[in-house]
């Protein structure tokens, strides 16, 4: 079950070009995406209105898309402008483009009722374009995990010391920190503060200080579009970083991560982790990206293994612990939003 009347990340800016179509499945639907002559993203269902051949097997002619079965040619608006062997082109020979808007280096798509697609509802991800931050795009394809199983993981950082023992880490203290939860109609905010803890392994190449450190993770989870945005970082302990007085040598980061269901059982995970220090040193951003990529592969391993067991035991009850508080709230808000959408559609 997916929310439909929300904006989802369909692609990262660098994936969309004017000379090549991107074929991608989102919310169970096959799509083709590319850029029109002005550079704006275009998204169509990956099927020709004529005999349903996949458009992704077609070709771009300028910013028009030709189906390479019987040669129909479509404009970015979806209008058909050429039917070989036929003069008159009826109004039914039209592709229905999905609303898609590029903002903050992300292409956002609306796959619900197009009349409700208001670009003002696109969530804020301005850090990705802000000159005060540097980030590289990252992507994980979960071939075998439902998006809610991944959401559970992102709402519960008690796993950091175990799944990421040798990377993001932090040890047992990651599970001992009691997060502060704030609930909103759009989702939740989770704030985690670690006082005087060891420097996690992945920061060893980035920090000019050693432990003990103060560490913070303050993140928001929006159910619409499954978007995580987080302010996080580390500073030498005892300098007031946890009270908001971040010293000049603090390592400050901002991340934007989005889960877009591919199918019920597979998920696209688009991520950026930005550094807000040493902006002139591209190697910092590259190293951060490399380390995060390793850590996210650790998540993928345990989550896909967990999903396989869940699927094999669909009736087995899970037994809760204190660390589940945020994910339980996240699931409850999602449930409310799904029934509200189903109610509105009925
Ligand atoms: S199926 Fe596309 S032109 Fe016939
Ligand atoms: Fe993780």
Q: What does this molecule look like?
A:
With 346 residues, this protein is α+β, with helices and mostly antiparallel strands. It has two domains: 7-120, Rieske [2Fe-2S] iron-sulphur domain (Rieske Iron-sulfur Protein, 3-layer Sandwich), CATH 2.102.10; 125-342, Naphthalene 1,2-dioxygenase Alpha Subunit, Chain A, domain 1, CATH 3.90.380. The protein has five helices and 17 strands. Strands 11-17-16-15-14-13-12 form a seven-stranded antiparallel β-sheet, covered by helices on one side. Strands 5-6-7-8 form a four-stranded antiparallel β-sheet, with no helix packed on it. The chain has a three-stranded antiparallel β-sheet with strand order 1-10-9, with no helix packed on it. The longest helix is centred in the C-terminal third of the chain and has 31 residues, at 282-312. It is globular, with a radius of gyration of 22 Å.
Layout of secondary structure:
Layout: E1 7-12, E2 22-26, E3 29-35, E4 41-45, E5 59-61, E6 64-66, E7 73-74, E8 80-82, E9 100-103, E10 106-110, E11 134-142, H1 147-154, H2 160-163, H3 173-176, E12 180-183, E13 187-197, E14 213-222, E15 227-236, E16 251-263, E17 266-275, H4 282-312, H5 325-345
Antiparallel strand pairs: 1-10, 2-3, 3-4, 5-6, 6-7, 7-8, 9-10, 11-17, 12-13, 13-14, 14-15, 15-16, 16-17
